[in-house]
Amino acid sequence: MDGLVVRGHVVTSDGILENGWIAVRDGTISAVGQGSAPDANTVEDFVIAGSCPAPSTARPMREARSVFPASA
After folding, report:
1. Is residue 17 part of a domain?
2. Are 13 and 32 in contact (CB under 8 A)?
3. Which of 33, 42, 50, 62 is deepest in the core (most CB within 10 A)?
4. Is the dihedral of CA 4, 51, 66, 59 positive or negative?
5. Residue 60 domain-assigned?
6. Could you give the CA distance from residue 63 to residue 15 in angstroms, rounded to a whole number?
7. Total Cβ atoms within 10 A of residue 10
8. How do the residues of the chain divide into helix, strand and coil, expressed in percent and rounded to 5?
9. CA–CA dist 53, 9 (Å, integer)
10. Which one-letter DSSP state was computed for residue 38?
11. Number of domains in the chain
12. Is residue 72 part of a domain?
């Protein structure tokens, strides 16, 4: 897949997807899933420590990644 896959615990309106992933193509979320992530040009692990203010979750992924970068 051309694009980005971000792996981690994904919080949805239905709950938390452990071992989840979000696929991003052309700056838009194209798929969300759990388990094995699709192949992509870029795969990153995404970690947010603590709580996340609601307005930041509504930002496009490229903005959210600059606010909450993954830690090694």
Report:
1. yes
2. no
3. 33
4. positive
5. yes
6. 23
7. 18
8. 15, 45, 40
9. 17
10. P
11. 1
12. no
Domain hosting 45: range is 4-67
Q: Which residue has the tokens 């994904």?
A: 10
Within-domain flag for 14: yes
* Helical (H) or strand (E) element with 62: helix 61-67
Nearest Cα to Cα of residue 44 among 59, 16, 64, 15: 64
The amino acid sitting at 61 is M
Tens-digit pLDDT string for the chain (72 aa) = 678 999 988 888 888 888 999 999 888 889 999 999 888 888 888 766 555 555 545 444 454 444 444 544
Q: In this predicted structure, what is the pLDDT of residue 1?
A: 66
Give the Cα separation of 45 and 4 in Å (integer).
Answer: 11
